[in-house]
Amino acid sequence: MSEAIRPALLMVAMEPPASLEEEFNDWYDTEHFPQRLALPGFVSASRWACIDGWPRWLALYDLTSPDALNSAAYRSVSGAQSTPWSRRVLPRTVGRSRVVAVGLDGQDHTQYEPREVCRLLAMSVALPQDAAAKSAVALASEASASAQAIIAAVREALTPRGDLLQLRGFVEDDQTLWLFASFDSPASATLAAQIGRPCGASIRSFNVYVPYRRSSY
């Protein structure tokens, strides 16, 4: 399957200064998040608060394909076309990262219902790189095979816990595997000891989240 038509994930993380956090969440909840979810090609979305790791706020968007981020509708509300509120809030955040990655074959196309998740583990793993010059197709094929082996090793390590709801993997630029594991119990950063170094791979990031819930009082 061509990368352009593979299901994909957009992951955005950032943290506002404490003085801006209330406005940041107002902006996300009432403008930015609904705006993104209404765009063509955006299938589902969720927000998360980091309890072990950094930065604090994470948003995940399931996409029909990476091309959803090239549509005229998306471009009309992004970058220089962003709303005045977005242009006010975003430059004041720190730790901003934006990842677009394509999904592995044979997995759920959408994320587990956040209301049923107690903890979410988001980790990134460096995929092995062959120094020999190869075609883009060959590199993509090797990256996919490595990613499938790594996610299988992680699944084997986590399944005995009995609380794993969903495990999904996404490959970014044929270099990094992003893994998202949903649990129905309060899993913690001690998961790192259970997972170890899957297939000998280097772990680049390891954050634990809870579903975002805005206080109603």
Give a short overview.
By secondary structure, the chain is an alpha+beta fold. The chain has helices at 21-37, 72-75, 84-89, 136-158, 191-195; strands at residues 8-15, 42-52, 57-63, 94-103, 119-126, 164-172, 176-183, 203-211.
Instruction: Count up the helices.
Output: 5
Number of structural domains: 1
Distance between the termini: 48 Å
What general form does the structure show?
globular
CATH architecture: 2-Layer Sandwich
- Give the helix level as a range of percent: 25-40%
CATH level-1 class: Alpha Beta
Class from secondary-structure proportions: alpha+beta
Radius of gyration, CA atoms, in whole angstroms:
18 Å
Low-confidence segments, ≥5 residues, pLDDT <50?
Answer: none
Query: Biggest sheet: strands side by side, in what order?
Result: 1-3-2-8-5-7-6-4
Helix-strand sequence: EHEEHHEEHEEHE
Counted beta strands: 8
What is the makeup of the main sheet? 8 strands, antiparallel, barrel
- Determine the strand fraction and express it as a percent band: 25-35%
